[in-house]
TrEMBL record:
Pfam families: Cellulase (PF00150)
BP terms from Gene Ontology: glucan catabolic process
Family the entry assigns: Belongs to the glycosyl hydrolase 5 (cellulase A) family.
Organism: Dioszegia hungarica
Limits of the Glycoside hydrolase family domain: 72-337
Superkingdom to which the source organism belongs: Eukaryota
Name recorded for this polypeptide: Glycoside hydrolase superfamily
Molecular-function annotations in GO: beta-glucosidase activity
Keyword tags: Glycosidase, Hydrolase
InterPro entries: GH, Glyco_hydro_5, Glycosyl_hydrolase_5
Length: 472
């Protein structure tokens, strides 16, 4: 029987002894994302479109099987073999609440969450429950599944209160479960005014502690987990770990240069991490890097040196992990499983799912329809003039929030990642038209671990660090 994890000074402790949490995120499971699962657009649009093509009964059947096969006991065994002791479980609010029937919690939403928490506990893995999408969307990003480019969560108290109600319900459910390390109440918030996030954290902490005084809350920084500048204006909340997301420009398309591990490149990683963890040192609190990790290329992407590019990105991951190790920071790499872009394990190309969606997925990549890790080389010549025109026409555009986004990203968000993707989705779901339940089951089985391939070098880098930590 485990004990509740607690915060003590700058450490997370179990039975009074320090523990460093290391693992990955189960993105693409209870919070599907376009680049992880292969569809265009947003999850709520994909689910609604599948229902229109398949009918409600068969669509529900497919998505339930998908959730079942994405993480099974075989996954838990492999995951534990890496030496991981924690897993971040991103969930979307729509599993638990209907927008047309707000505040009525759906018990069915807990079916697979309970199952995976119990599976992980069996193998000594702590779960961190991450509310990855909230009503209205807590950021401008695709991953909050709003389908729009404005974070309306911060404009409506009703949206904020619905999220608190859901999180309090989760806290009540798992209050006695010691294998739940805690809750990550809101993934990558992006509040343009900053203070609304701080106020909401106070409210959600109070509501959750009223029913569950024991579990840790993992609180992301503002502006996608990277900005803690205003946090010092309020008192740190008790038994909370503040969480930074630490992505490297060297791990994505169009980096400043190929990562070679030079002193200057390593200094860039050190500086980024130091900036994002400065607040934690200020309050003498522990650090949890809730997300980090490069994306990878494949032979189909058209680069003759794709293996060299991937080797450089593995080196990026290794360099960042070494920094976290020196600082005794906990971490959760993004992510465990996907269709071949970033995960530790990838869905096999010869599976029914990849054979069915493969051409559509490659087309989506060529059109740069997703936003995450996109390589826009084939459409850049079309969009550069639009971006230039917007910047020249509206000079204030350069100060648009979030400031970390380039003008190109702001424009592509609306035109490609929203408008274009919504139209691509209409074509995409036709691939499933007329499928029987047996055929849908075979498609869902593509996500079983025995139909996946491991990204061996990345797995070894992570396992070597995790096992070294826990053998100390």
């Amino acid at each position: 029987m485990s004990s509740f994890l607690q915060v003590r000074g700058n450490e997370i402790v179990r039975d009074g002894k320090p523990i460093i949490l290391k693992g990955a995120s189960l993105g693409g499971w209870m919070c599907m994302e376009n680049f992880i699962n292969g569809f265009p657009g947003h999850e709520h649009q994909f689910r609604a479109s599948m229902k229109s093509v398949l009918g409600e009964k068969k669509a529900d059947f497919f998505f339930d099987k998908f959730l079942e096969y994405w993480f099974t006991e075989e996954d838990a065994k492999l995951y534990a073999s890496f030496g991981f002791n924690s897993i971040r479980l991103p969930v979307g609010y729509r599993h638990f609440e209907d927008d047309m029937n707000p505040r009525v919690i759906k018990e069915s939403g807990y079916k697979h969450l309970d199952r995976v928490i119990d599976l992980c506990a069996k193998y000594g893995i702590y779960s961190i429950i991450d509310l990855h999408t909230a009503p209205g969307g807590q950021s401008q990003g695709w991953h909050c599944d709003s389908g729009i480019s404005h974070a309306t969560f911060w404009d409506h108290k009703d949206f904020q209160d619905r999220a608190i109600n859901l999180l309090a319900n989760m806290a009540e459910r798992y209050k006695d479960n010691t294998w739940v390390a805690g809750y990550n109440p809101l993934n990558e918030p992006a509040d343009e005014h900053h203070t609304r996030l701080l106020d909401w954290y106070v409210q959600v902490e109070k509501a959750m502690r009223a029913v569950d005084p024991h579990h840790i809350l993992f609180l992301d920084g503002n502006t996608y987990g990277a900005d803690f500048r205003r946090f010092s204006e309020v008192k740190p909340l008790p038994n909370c770990v503040y969480a930074a997301h630490d992505y490297s420009a060297y791990g994505f398309p169009n980096p400043p240069e190929m990562f070679k591990g030079t002193a200057e490149q390593k200094a860039y990683h050190e500086k980024n991490y130091a900036r994002k963890s400065e607040y934690m040192r200020e309050i003498n609190g522990p650090v949890w890097v809730g997300e980090f990790g490069p994306v990878y290329v494949s032979p189909e992407d058209g680069y003759s040196n794709w293996e060299e590019m991937n080797d450089a990105r593995y080196d990026v991951a290794k360099d960042q992990i070494d920094i976290y190790a020196r600082d005794k920071a906990s971490w959760a790499i993004w992510l465990y499983k996907d269709v071949g872009f970033q995960g530790l394990v990838n869905i096999g190309k010869d599976t029914p799912w990849m054979k069915l969606i493969g051409p559509a997925n490659e087309r989506k990549k060529r059109l740069a329809a997703d936003q995450w890790g996109v390589d826009d080389k084939e459409v850049r010549h079309l969009f550069d003039p639009i971006v230039k025109w917007v910047q020249e026409t509206v000079p204030g555009f350069k100060s648009r929030y979030p400031p970390t986004w380039s003008a190109t990203r702001h424009v592509s968000k609306v035109i490609r990642e929203q408008l274009l993707s919504e139209e691509l989705l209409k074509e995409f779901v036709l691939l499933f038209e007329g499928k029987s339940e047996a055929e849908l089951d075979e498609l869902a089985k593509s996500f079983l671990l025995n139909n996946c391939v491991q990204r061996d070098r990345l797995c070894k880098i992570l396992a070597d660090d995790a096992k070294a930590t826990f053998s100390d």
